Amino acid sequence: MGRKKIKTAIVFNEPHPELYIKQGELNEKKLDFVPYFEVDNITPIEEYEIMAQKFKANGVNAYTLNIKDDFQSILKDIKKNKPDVIFNFVEIYKEDARHEMNIVGMLELLRIPFTGAPSMALANCQSKIFTKRLLNSFGIKTPRFIIIKKLPKHYRHRLKYPLIIKPAYEDASVGIENESIVENVEKLKERIEYILKYFAQPALVEEFIEGRELNVAILGDNEPAALPISEIDFTEMPDHLHNIVSYQAKWDPNHEAYHKTIPICPAKLPKRIEKKAKEIALKAFKAMGCRDYARVDMRLSKDHLYVLEVNPNPDLTEGAGFMRSAKTSGLSYVETLKKIINLALERKKRTVGSFQ
């Protein structure tokens, strides 16, 4: 009798799959710059299907489940298909990223093994404000900041320009654009008003740290390890764009910033800086309560390292940031995914009477 294949439910939330359209090929004649990347003509939903196919080809009985903003569909699927583990890719629920933790909380109550961060870590990391305060309490340096919850009468502060303004509760660079960096009080006021009105949440105002941007991927649970560091190279960024990974740089292949933020892995760093960056990333990973996999983004300026974000459950698309570091470490795409699944299964075995 052969060994039972692990049944894995790849769970995600795309409530309007009909809205996804193919981007088509880049028309270089319409662009006023030379593109660096080709367009990835695969939708997120297709990515999950490809993942399931690759799992099946490597001894894992995998299937996909799009919950479409209906948490009852998870309950029905668990009852019907009885998966051994859930690969959790739910990032937003009812158009609110802050509900992500609630889906995971339900899985915790059901004691179903699932990959990635627990609900508390997702809650911790969802708030940029809380993240900074918690990291600072552990002695981890972040850019100096203030929080603006409503339009102030006066814009007095002790921060040094330039400043960068972000929505306090968004992720995936949502709300971070070239206009997010300001160099005077007029632009500061304008951007804060935009964040408060458009995103209906507090504005995080930080000192902008000019320097090298490093992404440190962490893999593991009880014994997490830092993977080779990846760097976002800004040397090709034109003068009219700031050296940041904006929303457009991440998601818009027709925007120049998308083609001027070029990843390099492994990053060429002095050994002492590399060691320090990995130590800080692991410390941040543990401080925020992350597990299985995460990515810690930081800036290196004059030998000082500042943590910008701690990203639990980062993008696992083949060729994306986390997988780039995994590949450099010697792990294939499927090996990395299976490693993450095994972490969740091993966690269940360790836990007596409950699953955390």
**What is the overall silhouette?**
globular
What is the terminal separation in angstroms?
Answer: 32 Å
Radius of gyration: 21 Å
Question: Which structural category do the helix and sheet elements fall into?
Answer: alpha+beta
Largest sheet: 6 strands, antiparallel
| Named CATH topology of the largest domain | D-amino Acid Aminotransferase, Chain A, domain 1
Number of strands: 13
Secondary-structure element order, N to C: EHEHEHHHEEEHEEEEHHEHEEHH
Can you walk through the features of this model?
The chain is of the alpha+beta class. It has two domains: 6-141 and 209-350, ATP-grasp fold, B domain (D-amino Acid Aminotransferase, Chain A, domain 1, 2-Layer Sandwich), CATH 3.30.470; 145-207, Dna Ligase, domain 1 (2-Layer Sandwich). It is 34% helix and 20% strand. It is built from eleven helices and 13 strands. The chain has helices spanning 44-56, 72-81, 100-110, 119-126, 128-137, 185-199, 247-251, 256-260, 271-287, 321-328, 333-350, and strands spanning 6-12, 60-66, 85-88, 145-148, 163-167, 181-182, 203-207, 212-220, 225-226, 230-233, 262-264, 292-301, 304-312. Strands 8, 9, 10, 11, 12 and 13 form a six-stranded antiparallel beta sheet that branches. Strands 4-7-5-6 form a four-stranded antiparallel beta sheet, covered by helices on one side. Strand 1 (6-12), helix 1 and strand 2 (60-66) form a beta-alpha-beta unit. Helix 3 packs antiparallel against helix 4 (119-126). The longest helix is centred in the last third of the chain and has 18 residues, at 333-350. The two termini are 32 Å apart. Residues 352-356 have low confidence and may be disordered.
